[in-house]
Structures are given as structure tokens and as C-alpha cells.
């Protein structure tokens, strides 16, 4: 998904500095911070996802933080869950037994590249259509004004 940034930048290049975009981004980040504190169990999912990503990437060691650590001193339950997360991924998902856990990632990259090519073709078509519609609109405007 290395091309995701290219797609995102191209899609939002005109909107990134708009006032509405900045306000919505700030509100979204504030909600994320508040909701993390209101529901610390979501951090358990985040920790599992991070541990899985690290294992797939081939990390030598993985340390998962207790899910309630950002809001309070961790409990014995949260420490046990954090300790067992990597063990569960290793023993039950057999991530340590595979040679290349991300072996099929080339296909996702290929599909992403195809999406980018199709998106740029559509953008080029829309830009050419917009140029023609601008010319037609200008002509109609000039005709309506009697020029």
C-alpha cells in the first residue's frame, strides 16, 4: 500500500489547507483521544493489531503495552492480556512458523498500482471534459449577453 499516500495526496491536494478540512481533522483527532480514554478496551485491539503487524514485518521482539496504561496504572488483568497477546499470535496463528507471513503482499501492491492507473485515467478524462464544458459554458454566456 505504498501508493496510498500518492492517491491521498492527489485526491486531497486542494482540500488539505481548507478551513473545513482542518476543523474536521482537529475534531476527529479530539474524538479519537477522548474515546480512547472512555473505552480503553479498544486499545486491546490496537495492541493486537500492532503486534500482528510487527510479527508479519519480522520483528525480533514484540512488547505489547497494557490496554489501560494511557489512563491509569495497569491492572493485573491488562498486564496478563498484554503478555499473552504476542503468545496467542505466535502459538495459535502460527506466525512464527511461516517463512514469509506477508508473502501475498505483492498482489495487493499490484492491485493498488492498477487502481492508481485507472484513477489517473479517469482524472484525465474528467479534466478534458471539464475543459470542454468550460468552453461551452463561456460560449453560451457570451451568446446570452449578445457578444
How would you describe this structure to a colleague?
It is a single chain. The protein has 147 residues and is mainly alpha-helical. The protein has three domains: 1-38; 40-103, no CATH class; 104-147. It contains five helices and no strands. The protein has helices spanning 4-12, 19-38, 42-57, 76-92, 105-144. Helix 3 (42-57) packs parallel to helix 4 (76-92). The longest helix is centred in the C-terminal third of the chain and has 40 residues, at 105-144. The chain is elongated. The relative contact order is 0.09.
Which secondary-structure class do the elements indicate?
Answer: mainly alpha
The mean pLDDT is 75
What is the total tally of β strands? 0
Cα separation of the termini: 53 Å
Instruction: Indicate the radius of gyration in whole angstroms.
Output: 25 Å
Portion in beta strands? under 5%
Spell out the helices and strands N to C. HHHHH
The main β sheet shows up as: none
Low-pLDDT runs of 5+ residues are none
| Morphology | elongated
**How many domains would you count in the coordinates?**
3
Number of helices: 5
Helix content: 55-70%
Family: To methylmalonyl-CoA mutase.
Protein name: Methylmalonyl-CoA mutase homolog
Organism: Alkalihalophilus pseudofirmus (strain ATCC BAA-2126 / JCM 17055 / OF4) (Bacillus pseudofirmus)
GO molecular function: cobalamin binding; methylmalonyl-CoA mutase activity
Amino acid at each position: 500500500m505504498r501508493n496510498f499516500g500518492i492517491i491521498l495526496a492527489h485526491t486531497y491536494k486542494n482540500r488539505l489547507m481548507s478551513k473545513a478540512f482542518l476543523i474536521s481533522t482537529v475534531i476527529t483527532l479530539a474524538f479519537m483521544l477522548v474515546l480512547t480514554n472512555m473505552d480503553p478496551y479498544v486499545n486491546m485491539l490496537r495492541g493486537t493489531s500492532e503486534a500482528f503487524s510487527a510479527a508479519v514485518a519480522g520483528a525480533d521482539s514484540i512488547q505489547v503495552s497494557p490496554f489501560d496504561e494511557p489512563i491509569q496504572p495497569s491492572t493485573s488483568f491488562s498486564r496478563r492480556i498484554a503478555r499473552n497477546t504476542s503468545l496467542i499470535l505466535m502459538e495459535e496463528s502460527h506466525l512464527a512458523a511461516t517463512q514469509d507471513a506477508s508473502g501475498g503482499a505483492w498482489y495487493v501492491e499490484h492491485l493498488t498500482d492498477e487502481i492508481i492507473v485507472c484513477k489517473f485515467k479517469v482524472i484525465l478524462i474528467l479534466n478534458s471534459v471539464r475543459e470542454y464544458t468550460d468552453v461551452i459554458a463561456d460560449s453560451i454566456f457570451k451568446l446570452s449577453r449578445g457578444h
